[in-house]
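Notes from the 1:1 (GR / supervisor)

We went over the backlog. Supervisor wanted to see one worked example end to end before approving the batch request, so GR pasted a single chain during the call. The sequence is below; no edits were made to it. Supervisor asked that the structure be written out right there so they could see what the output format looks like.
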Amino acid sequence: MARDAAGARLAFGGSSVTHVAADLGSLRGVRAAAARIRELLDAGELPPLRGFVGNAGVQYTNALTETEDGLEATFAVNVLANHLLVRALGGHFGTPARVVITVSDTHFGDLRHNLGLVPGPAWSAPEVLARPGAFARPTTATAGSTAYSTSKLAAIYLVHEYARRLPGIDVIAYNPGFVPGTGLARNAGPLARFAMRRLLPVMARTPLATGQDAAGRHLADVVLGRTPAPTGSYVDRHRAARSSDESYHPERERELWDAAERLTASYPSRPCHGCHG
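Structure output shown during the call:
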C-alpha cells in the first residue's frame, strides 16, 4: 500500500496521521527517518512516543542480495533496521511504552509450524549473517528462506536482550502465523509462485494460517497491551507462548546486541549517485 493511501486509511474517522518515509534497506535512510521523527517529537508536532511497531520484513530468493551498505538485505531489514530505529528513538519514549517486533514461527524450523515449507534457521556469528553468502548454496531460494527464518530467530534474541536493557519499556515478539496475501514471496521464482498458488488455498484453511484482518487485530491487541504479555514475551497470534528452545540463548543474545551496535554505528553508506540533500 502506498504511504499516502495508508495514511488516508489510518486517518479515517478523524485521527491525525503523520508519515515519515524510510528506506529500511539503507542505514543512512533509517538514520534520517529517526532524526526526522526526533525533530517532530522535540517540536511538539507529534504526541509523546509510547510505542514502536517493527512490522516490515523482506524475504529474497537468494542469500546474496546486498544493500548499499554491503550488508545482506534480509538481515539488514529484518534485524538491523529495527535495532537502529529502537536505539535512535530510545531517549524519546515516554513511560509506559511498548516495542513490538513482528517475528515468525518459521524460527522453529519444524514440520508442525510450517509444514516443512521453510527451512529452519542456521545460526552463526552475527557478523557472518550480516554479509551476503552466509548460507549454503547462496544463490538458491532455499538459502533465501534460511536467511529469513534465521533473521526472525535473531529478532527474538534482540527482544530478549531489549527486555534486559531497556527499563520502562515492554518489548514483545509478535508472531502472526502464516498470513496469505501479504506479498512476502513476490520475489519467488516461477516454480515457487506456482506452488504457492496451489498451496495457499489449502493452507489458508488450516490452523497455520491467519487472515490479514485477524493478524492486524492481534497485532493491535499486543501493541495496546490488551494481550497479557510481560516484557520479553513471545506472543503467538493472540496469546503469550513459548518460542523455540533455540530462541532462549543469553550468550547469542548478548553477542547479537554487541554486533548490531557495531554494525549500525560503523557501516558508512556507499556514495548515492543522483541523491540530493
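Supervisor's comment: Residues 141-165 form the longest helix (25 residues).
Batch request approved.
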